[in-house]
Design goal:
TIM Barrel; 19% strand; globular
């Protein structure tokens, strides 16, 4: 099975078009975060999502941690997927699904230690996919993605082998290492932000190299 590619931190309709022309199966639209690159206003997320043709998935990256706030956030943006980048602390995934029955739910797991495996296995029963990233929500200023750091892919491999849903792999991926990442973890999809950018902007040459490496596996 070919590994899908999600291009994250999309900042404009033009960037979305560039990513899709390159072959992206999904684009990530980052809302307000405590740290990290690429946040854009909710109204721009909504415009980009509306301009994105099916079957490309549009991911709202939300740092909200209550089901009610996540539902309200999605209703302002109308993406077809919600990427929850922090732990759900109030309400349930079932609550979100009941309110937004046609929207896919992706939960981010920040791969820090063996405990991340247990967390991923438990949550995988309730969501449509999990996304393994290199943040740290335990810091005083939470890191919820976009770190540009690679995490322990051996832990990610264990997670991928044990969970009951598709796995997206993120964190420090770039043309130079994405082949090794795929061969090590065998994820459903890879997710890249800074690894295909130069001075913060999508770089067509890096995009082409990234896609070429993924497709060569």
């Amino acid at each position: 099975m070919n590994t899908r590619i999600k291009i994250c931190c999309i900042g404009s309709i033009q960037e979305a078009e560039t990513a899709i022309r390159s072959g992206a199966s999904a684009i990530g639209l980052v809302a307000r975060m405590p740290s990290g690159p690429g946040p854009i206003p909710d109204d721009l997320i909504r415009r980009i999502a509306a301009a994105t043709p099916p079957p490309v998935a549009t991911f709202l990256l939300t740092s909200r941690t209550s089901a009610g706030a996540i539902i309200e956030h999605h209703r302002r943006t109308h993406t077809n997927t919600i990427q929850i980048v922090d732990a759900l602390t109030e309400g349930t995934y079932e609550e979100i699904r009941a309110a937004l029955p046609y929207v896919k739910i992706v939960q981010v797991i920040h791969v820090i230690s063996e405990a991340s495996i247990e967390e991923a296995v438990m949550l995988s029963e309730s969501v449509d996919a999990i996304l393994l990233d290199s943040g740290n929500p335990n810091l005083e200023i939470k890191e919820l993605g976009g770190t540009g750091r690679v995490h322990n892919w051996k832990l990610s491999r264990k997670i991928r082998e044990q969970v009951s849903c598709p796995v997206f792999l993120a964190g420090g991926l770039k043309p130079e290492n994405v082949r090794e990442a795929i061969e090590t973890v065998e994820p459903f999809a890879v997710d890249v932000c800074s690894g295909v950018r130069t001075n913060g902007l999508l770089d067509p040459e890096k995009l082409e190299r990234f896609f070429r490496e993924v497709q060569s596996v």
